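User: quick one, fold this
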Amino acid sequence: MKDLIIGRKAEKELLRDIYYSSKSEFVAVCGRRRVGKTFLIREYYEDVLVFQTAGLAKQPMRQQIKSFYVDLLDQGLMVHGESEPKDWIEVFMLLRQVIKQSDKKRKVILLDELPWMDTPKSGFVAALEHFWNSWASVRHDIVLVVCGSATSWMMNKLINNHGGLYNRITRRIFLEPFTLKETEMFLQSRGFTLSRYEIAVCYMIMGGIPFYLELLERNLSLAQNIDSLFFRNNGQLSREFANLYAALFVDSSNYVKVVEVLSQKHTGMTRSEIIKATGLASGSKLTIILQNLESCGFIRQYSLFGEPRQSTLYQLVDFFTLFYFRFLVNKAPGNWEAMQGKAQFYTWAGLTFELLVLQHIDAIKRSLGISGVETRISTWRCVGGERGAQIDLLIDRQDNTINICEAKFSVDTFYISKDYEANLRNKLRQFIERTKMKKSIQLTLVTTYGLERNTHSGVIQKLITLDDLFA
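Assistant:
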C-alpha cells in the first residue's frame, strides 16, 4: 500500500485499519464530484487491488454490464466458453471467480461510480445485496470499496438502506475538499510557490477541490490562471457548473434554482423564502433537494443562536458555485486580472473570507487552545432598536465561554478605526442584553495579516491570522 498521497491523514489511517481488519469490510466512500475519491482508493490500494471498474454515465443496463464484463476479462477472468452475462446476478458470479483466482492475502475490490450502474429496473442493488450477504461477508478476506459522487444515491440505496443491505456497510468515508493546509501541500508538491494569501484567494474560488487545483499552471500568475480556466470561452472550467450539477442530480434544473437564489443572500434563507424565490412547491420533493444538496456539501443548515429549530436557515457554502454566480453567469472575457484591487474584488473577498473561516473551525479551535472542548457553532442577529447587529460566527463553548468572531479580509494588517470599535462594542452590548448572556465573552478577530495596534485595537481579545488557518 502507498502512503504518498497529499494530506488525507485520517482517511489513510482508516483505510489501513480496514485492510488489516480480521473480517470482510464493505466500505462506502462518498463526496462531491472532483474531490478525489477514486484517486484516494486507487493510489492507496494500488498494490493490493484485485479488481476495479466504474459505472458509465447515463448508459443503459446493457452497456453497464458489458463494461463491467470487459474489465473482468481484462483483469484475469478465465473464460471457458461462457457468453457475456445477461444480468447483474451473473456479473457478480463472474466477479467471484476473479476473486477466487487471486492469491493476495486481502482481496480489495473497487466499484467506482456505483450510482450509474443502478439503471431503472436493472436489479443491480438486489444483485449487489446477494453478492455481499451470501458470499463476500461470509469470508474474512474481502475489502469491497464502493464510490459515488451522487451522494444522495449512496445515502438512500446503501448507507440508509432498509432492505437486504440494511446495516451492511461496515465503514463509511465522506471525503471532504482539501483544507487550506492540504491545498498548500498539494500545490507545493507540484512546484508552486504561491503565498498563503494567494492560496487563500485560490481556495475562495475553487474550494480545495483537487481536480481544479491540478489544472493550475506554474508559469502563470494566479490571476492569469483564473482567467484561463474560468473566463476564456474554452477554459477548462468554463462549463464545469452545468456538468457538476447534471452529473450529481436527476432533474438538476431544480437544484440549480435553489443554489441560485441562495447565492443571492450570503447569510442564508429559510425554507419559506426559498419556496417564494424559486417558485418550487413545498413538500417532499423540495425536502429531498435540500437534503441532497446538504449531503453533497453544497449547502449547510443552521439555526440562529437562541432561536428555535423552526428558524433553520439554508446557506450556500460551495465556493465554486458562489464564484460562478458572482462572476461567471454574465462573464466578460479575461476580466479577472482587471478586477484585482478593485471594489468588486474586495466585496467578493470580504464575504467569501467569512465562509473560509467557517470551513476551518477546527483550525480556529486549535489556535484558541480549545480543540478538546465541546462547542456549538452558530450565528446571531437582531433588528430594530437603536442599531441592528449581526454576528456571523459564534463559538459557544462548554467551558462557559463564547467566542464572538469577526472575519475580516485584508491585504495588510487590519486597522480598527474609532467607528469600527464603536460598532464592535455595540454588537457585544446588544448580544449580551438581548440574550441575557451569563457566559464570558471573548471578542475574536480572524484576519489575513494580523492587527495594527492602536488606541482602538484593545477591544480585540483574541487574534487569529491566516497562518493559524493553515496550521
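User: anything notable?
Assistant: The two ends are 28 Å apart (CA to CA).
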